[in-house]
Amino acid sequence: MNDRYDVVIAGAGPAGAQCARDLAARGYDVVVLETEAEDEFPRQSNKSTAGTFPSMMASFGIPDDVVMQYTDSVVLESPTEHYVREQPGAVLEFADFKRYLVADGRDDGAEYRFEARVTAPIMEGGEIVGVTYNGDEAVYGDIVVDATGPAAPLAKKLDVVDLKRENHAIGIEYEFEGIDIDRPGFADLRDAMMLRLDHDIAPGGYSWIFHTGEDTAKVGLCYIQNDSHAQYSREDFSIDDYLSHWLDTDPRFRDAERIEGKQHRGSAHIQAPGKLHTDRFMAIGDTVPTVDPLWGEGINKCMQSGRAAAAAADSCLKHGDIEPSTENLAVYDTLWHRDVAPNANTRLLMTQLLYLAPNERYDKLMQDLGRLGDETLANANNGSPLAIARLLDLEDIPLLAQFAKQQFGFDFDGLLS
Length: 417
Prior knowledge:
34% of the residues lie in helices and 27% in strands. It is built from 14 helices and 16 strands.
């Protein structure tokens, strides 16, 4: 094996594998170091709900054979209401998808080393020049990329990321058969991805049902362990308890049975990124973090961040005499904020406000969306202040006051009194 490459990537998830695909396709020597064993990959990292959209499939050339089910709509549910938006999508078999990315990158010349746990950066003259893995193994590169997710062994030691515990989201998902997909009194979930806002099920987060064909679906929930979760959670409930509670109380699951071996647990951080890169180094995917804060979509965001990092690396390496310094890798930061997560701060504030709202407000939100239509939702989702304002009314003043006090320490109650 070589010990020197153009680019060294830690992590073979969607971000790292896509970065390797793009770089290998451009003729660069790239190696990906992955913790898991190849014959089980991805066992421990098979964590994603894997709901995505045709734009990702087309942009990254993803084949149909990794898709469990193409969907026609997105359904938003609250405790007693729902809203349906026509939106084509795809629910992937995440393990097949990850294995495809690895195989496709290898076809273009990317090297993969499995059972290679990255532990630390190798530094010379204050700059990263390589990484150590499995204790005493070493590999060197002109540019190093951390795509390990929240573990972030390189990005943390280089002070590129500061992932806060209070922004840590956890999730659990099972796959079931025997689900009543079109239950009377509920939205028709055939060929749909459903997201439910309901603090009784996911306090400070949301739950989901993603149809995967016939009477099967992915069912799960996630939440952030922050002030909203503390306000609405049950003291004695774990995330497993919340999922069990939903399964026991929702009639759609009355005859459902878990599919053996189809349990997934995952985590991500929901926060604004700080630094994204430094000399000879970039952090991508959930290391940054990159997951969409509002709806939790991560695959497309991670793939886009991997592509942006590959473009930044190419902008330095193709000339031969341009050092991959912080300044010269700044194109990655530009592409990330322009293409990967535009309006990131606004969307993050929307997320925090949304999860702070009570269940009764979620019911009214579904009614408002039905009245205002898809355009308002699309614009609000993109961070439009006008669209967000259209979804608010005078009854939201106490909620906004609570939000302002939590976020900015501003006491509206004291001002009004």
